[in-house]
Amino acid sequence: MNRAMIIGTGSALPTRVLDNAELERMVETTDEWITSRTGIKTRRIAGAGEETSKLATAAARRALVMAGITPIELDLILVGTITPDMTMPSCACLVQKELKATRAFAFDLNAACSGFLYALDVADKYIRSDPKLKIMVIGAETLSTRVDWQDRNTCVLFGDGAGACVVTGNHQRHGSDPGEGLGDDAGKDKAEDDQKKETRPGADEDERGYLGAKLYADGNLWELLHLEGAPGRNPDLSRADHNSEPSIKMYGPEVFRHAVRAMADAVDKVLIEQGVSVKQLCLIIPHQANIRIIHSLGEHLALPLEKVYVNVDKYGNTSAATIPIALDEANRQGRLAAGDLLLLCSFGGGFTWGASLIRW
Ligand code: UT7
Fold this sequence. Notes:
Number of strands: 13
CATH class of the largest domain: Alpha Beta
Order of helices and strands: EEHHEHEHEHEHEHEEEHEHHHEE
Bound molecules: oxa(dethia)-CoA
CATH superfamily of the largest domain: Thiolase/Chalcone synthase
Number of helices: 11
Strand content: 15-25%
């Protein structure tokens, strides 16, 4: 059966680290409160030259190297984001320009924190109709540009970053050498990736790839988590009028309750639909918003903690980027072997939520 298969992953994070101690000096908060209520210790904040499109491009380059394909081979670039550099052109078009992926068409998709899951599902639909397509799927955000840095309810939660993956049909040949256009460190990256690749026996190619998803939305609840106004290009946070710009508004406890219930429900439904039991899962990568939400999902599924991927402590909530960043980390750590069952699930503004199942 034809289905999308991930053949390379990559991620990119801004260099600046903002820790809880620094936040203690900015708003009335404490490291103890942030850690115990959210699990977050640090987050990354984008600076000059680290706009959403730049982070997305850097993540995409790493994914291309691992996939062993060149930018010119890409047919489509999809970016899940709520913080594009500007309203028009799309972030995806800017990535296409940066990569010189001149054959690819490109568009953004706004599903808030579920943006990557939605985009992966769209990519799968294209690939089912033409398995030769090579699609770059990215989740990228610079939420720090849209946070009210005087609102302790939200500013401690969010961070910036990007994750990407290359997908193509599960029956295509994979892993040719990287060619032109990937930058100076392409060869080094490729060598590192080859070293880390596991040689565990793989499952039958026909069984591998994107098995399916259950995706949902409920616009009735939009007010509980929203961001008004047009996006801007990394506004200077020190500017006096910064807070006059629209920023993220969230009714945290309400969102928390919905997130726990909705993600558990989506996960149950996709497992039932695919005939997979929780015990068969090798790894679950949930949206990284709050360690307590992640733990309640783990408890709901009765999954041992080591099967639940967590990096919210390092990067906070990077919206559409949390899952692809975590996926890239898990992949490079060798936590995924051919044939492993991987579950992704998300919840975000809209509301949007869902779960998808992949046989690696
Ligand atoms: O990515 C999209 C999905 N987003 C999410 O899933 C986020 C879901 N929500 C959450 O993660 C949590 O609701 C939060 C982390 C946002 C808040 O945690 P909470 O345990 O629900 O706290 P709360 O909002 O009920 O606030 C409890 C107290 C309040 O004080 P009072 O009224 O009890 O005196 C808040 O004012 O904590 C206070 N508070 C803080 N205190 C210190 C809120 N933010 C802070 C802070 N530092 N940063």
